[in-house]
Amino acid sequence: MKLDESSSGFSSRSTNNELALIPLGPSTSSLSIAGGPTISNGFSSGIGSSFSQDNSFSPLLKDSADGYNSFSNGTKDDTHGLSGLHNLGNTCFMNSAIQSLVHTPPLVEYFLEDYTREINTENPLGLQGELAVAFGELLRKLWSSGRTSVAPRAFKAKLSRFAPQFSGYNQHDSQELLAFLLDGLHEDLNRVKKKPYIEAKDADGRPDDEFAEECWNNHKARNDSIIVDKFQGQYKSTLVCPVCNKISVTFDPFMYLSLPLPSTVTRMITVTVFSGTGDAFPMPFTVTVQKNGNCRDLTKALADVCCLKSSDALLLAEVYERRIYRYLTNPIEGLHNIKDEDILVAYRLPIGHEKHMRLEILHRRADRCAAEPQFNINRKLIGCPFVTCIPNDSTGKSDIYAAVSAVLAPFVRAKAHGPDVSAVKLNGNGPSLDGIVLTDNGATCEEGLSTSTGDDHAVDEHVPFQLSMTDEKGSVRNAIDADSNRGLGIVIRVLMDWSDREHEMYNIDYMDELPEVFKHGFLSKKTRQEAVNLFSCLDAFLKEEPLGPDDMWYCPGCKEHRQASKKLDLWRLPEILVVHLKRFSYSRYMKNKLDTFVNFPIHDLNMSKYVKQMSRGDRQPMYELYAVINHYGGLGGGHYSAYAKLVEEDNWYHFDDSHVSSVNEDAIRTSAAYVLFYRRVRGSCTVSNGVPVDIEMVDSLET
């Protein structure tokens, strides 16, 4: 891990969705600046002269629309940094973001000094410096003496001019405004006047640290500002092709971490597991998988919870209208294709079952009219299909009956009467498949098979159930004979007719109502209320997962777009670490806000676990919270406010538009927390021979 302790700040990288923290310089004067250095008389003497000499900015600086004089003086006894912002009409989203930034110590120090020397009026990606000047003027107003509220009309006018999406007086997302503002400030303050063209290169097998440093230097050659110094970090992105296993590694900058809440990246799926060999009763299992996961992930999760034997495998299938609608045999098929109202089953079969013939067993019941029982009123499929397999060299009828009898074994009633239902004896020496003995007693089953006539109820007393060949729609094709399985391909479908006799022997009532993939109700409400911590959000963000179907990666090996697996790792951390909790979720049909309480640390946030590489002697990245943006209410409205800490006072304040009040630190953690601002602190640890050592103690020994 790289931590730059130079005066220019810590080097980092940005991806347009992440923020960073900054180190504080020594105190040099009398005006408290949220834990940063102080400046006598309110502002440095260089500000006025610099502004007066630069005609391009003087109109902006003389703008007193907000009733503020840029050159007013402050005194030691004045209260600074506790001014509120008037709500101009649904502008609480803007006010909360501004208060969080103007209480970021390095930004306060920077904008109260002579920052105009770094304004870049030539950057075509910037705003000719006007956004930076507008923000700097607003920051000075908020840090002037007294606690008078400020109406940020001039700043909003500039913001709306360059970002029309924030014009008017509608409610907007505070995090989106924050991202735009940081990007805009960076471009306005970019020290690079002419960005060089740098050709992107591959790692070509080079070590990660070497390639990462090259990527960071290339980024800094085009992007060099106070925002990069303090807010930007770098992460490693690894893509793996699921087909050819091609690996692509890139190192990219980020300006804030946008963390999903675990409930937004995972889903619960319920699957009923059947035994294809008849040695266990069907059981439903509920597993938690990644929303962007695939069938391989689901199968693995099921195998873990159902204690799958090493000799068995799971065959996933979707059941619709009592039939098998489809098999989920593609391991990289995305789980987004599975809906909450679907019914999924998994058949536990021996490994290598693909090499055998697959036997599907559908169930049908005939309801008869009491007045005229010789006529059928209705035939309908019932229960859930069974699936098993039989050897490819099976002789036909006897093997099919024996396989059906085996899978029905768990459903035998304790006091079943009639023929032996534990095994069908048809020839005495039938073939076997993984311990299932297929036998024969010479009986025929052509008589009594379900047909379209009134004689369907006829029953062959020599067999415990009546079977007929069927197609995938459940329609009867023909009776089962000795050669029924020959020439039918890999899948054989049979239909079992259930009469009173079958119901007396077997109980399959359980299969009438199999659970759906996810049942909305008490469980889902309870899940939404469960609390999570910040570390589980970080784990979810950095967890390897497949790309979404709309975000396919072009594999240079396959020359095709693939749903590759993606893994993120934090490589270089900034000094100001901004964490966005993704409470808002959007889809084509639904918008939602999660009010999940996220338990986040206020002190001693140790990010060592999440940094890909830390060298011996590197300081552990320890952070302390100093600001929070809160959102109350639902989508399309609600209200924003901010908590901010005056670090030198060690006191927290609540900035609710124009109202500012003190607040206890214990009250900072709420379910409304939306954006968290952390600053890296000293007193961290360094690693020496694997043993943590107190930094302050090391510093004292060295001096």
Could you give a short description of this structure?
The protein is of the alpha+beta class. Among the domains are: 46-188, Alpha-Beta Complex (Cathepsin B, Chain A); 263-532, Phosphatidylinositol 3-kinase Catalytic Subunit, Chain A, domain 1 (Ubiquitin-like (UB roll), Roll), CATH 3.10.20.90.
Protein described:
Belongs to the peptidase C19 family. The protein is an alpha+beta fold and 703 residues long. Among the domains are: 46-188, Alpha-Beta Complex (Cathepsin B, Chain A), CATH 3.90.70; 263-532, Roll (Ubiquitin-like (UB roll)), CATH 3.10.20.90. 21% of the residues lie in helices and 27% in strands. It contains 16 helices and 32 strands. The strands form 9 sheets. Strands 3, 21, 25, 26, 27, 28, 29 and 30 form an 8-stranded mixed sheet that branches. A hairpin with a 2-residue loop joins β31 and β32 (691-694). α5 (130-142) packs antiparallel against α6 (153-162) and α5 (130-142) crosses α7. The longest helix is centred in the first third of the chain and has 15 residues, at 174-188. It starts with 45 loop residues before the first helix and ends with a helix. The model is unreliable at 1-65, 67-77, 417-461, 521-529 and 683-703 (pLDDT under 50).
